[in-house]
Design a protein that fits this description.
disordered C terminus; alpha+beta; 5 helices; about 270 residues; rod-shaped; 60s Ribosomal Protein L30, Chain: A; 2 domains; single chain
C-alpha cells in the first residue's frame, strides 16, 4: 500500500491585547490614590491654619453661591447684597475689633469738620464689643443743652460712623446717658430718663438713614445718670453722651450661624 500523505501542521498564534502598556486599570487606582493624598494634605493644612481661614473655607462649602444673609468669613460664603457696602464688608470678631477701631478713627479724620472733635470721641474695646462714646462738652458737642435733637456737629459724626458700621455684619446697640443735673419739663413728666432715651433714638434714626441696615440695631437704651462716666464728678459734661456699641459676632454651636451675644434687657425709661 502506498503511504498516506502526511497531514499538514497548522500553527495557531493567539494575539493577546494588553490595552496599551498592560491595561488601564492601574490608572484608575493611581488617580484614586493621588486624590486621597491630596485630600489628606488639605485636611492637615487646615488643621494648622488660623481660625478666620477655617471659617472662610467652611463658609465656601456652606454657601458656595455667596447668597447668605450673613457676611463672608464667619461661617458663611461670600457675601452679596446684605446692605450698603456689602461688597466691601468684613466680619468683626474679637480679634478684629482693634482693626475696626483704627478704621473708624481714620474715617473720622477724613471728615474735616470732625478733626476738632477728637477729644469728644472715645473708642474702647470692651467685653461687650467696641464701645464708641460721643461725649458732650459745656457748649454742647452733639446735642444742644436739654435738647433731644442731634445738632449739626452730631449729624456729621453719626453719619460718618453709620457709613462705616453699615459695612460690617455685627449688630449695634445705642445708649443715651445724661449727667446728674436735674431736668424737669412738662410738669415733671419729662426728665433725664426721657431725654437719654430720646437722644439714643434720634441717633438711631439718623444712622439708619445714612448707612446702618434696618435690622442692624438691636437695642436702644436710656440710662439717664445711672451709668456716669465720671462718678466722682456727676455733673461733668462728659457724662452726657451717646454710646454706640458694635457687638461681637458669635457662632452658635448648634447650627454654626453667627449671632450677636445676648445683651441685658432694655431699661424702662420711666423707672
Amino acid at each position: 500500500m502506498a503511504e498516506a500523505a502526511p497531514k499538514p501542521i497548522y500553527i495557531i498564534k493567539k494575539k493577546v491585547s494588553h490595552g496599551g502598556h498592560h491595561g488601564g486599570a492601574w490608572k484608575v487606582a493611581y488617580a484614586d490614590f493621588v486624590t486621597a493624598m491630596m485630600a489628606l494634605f488639605i485636611v492637615l493644612w487646615l488643621m494648622n491654619t488660623s481660625k478666620p481661614i477655617k471659617e472662610a473655607v467652611a463658609g465656601y462649602f456652606n454657601d458656595p453661591t455667596g447668597t447668605s444673609n450673613h457676611l463672608g468669613g464667619n461661617g458663611k460664603g461670600p457675601a452679596q447684597g446684605a446692605g450698603q457696602g456689602a461688597e466691601d464688608s468684613l466680619t468683626v470678631s474679637k480679634d478684629d475689633m482693634a482693626k475696626l477701631k483704627d478704621q473708624l478713627q481714620d474715617a473720622i479724620q477724613k471728615v474735616e469738620s470732625l478733626k476738632k472733635l477728637n477729644n469728644q470721641i472715645e473708642m474702647t474695646v470692651t467685653g461687650e464689643g467696641l464701645r464708641i462714646e460721643l461725649m458732650e462738652s459745656e457748649k454742647g458737642t452733639f446735642f444742644d443743652s436739654g435738647n433731644p435733637d442731634v445738632n449739626e456737629s452730631g449729624k456729621d459724626t453719626l453719619i460718618a460712623l453709620a457709613k462705616e458700621l453699615g459695612k460690617v455684619p455685627n449688630k449695634i446697640s445705642i445708649e443715651g446717658h445724661t449727667d446728674s443735673i436735674p431736668l424737669v419739663r412738662h410738669g415733671g413728666e419729662y426728665g433725664n430718663w426721657e431725654l437719654s432715651v430720646d437722644r439714643a433714638n434720634a441717633a438711631r434714626r439718623l444712622m439708619q438713614e445714612n448707612g446702618l441696615r434696618p435690622d442692624q440695631v438691636t437695642q436702644v437704651r436710656g440710662f439717664a445718670d445711672q451709668r456716669l462716666r465720671k462718678p466722682d464728678a456727676p455733673r461733668d459734661p462728659s457724662n452726657r453722651r451717646i454710646s454706640v456699641i458694635v457687638q461681637y459676632m458669635q457662632v452658635d454651636a448648634a447650627d454654626s450661624k453667627p449671632s450677636a451675644p445676648d445683651a441685658p434687657p432694655p431699661t424702662d425709661r420711666h423707672q
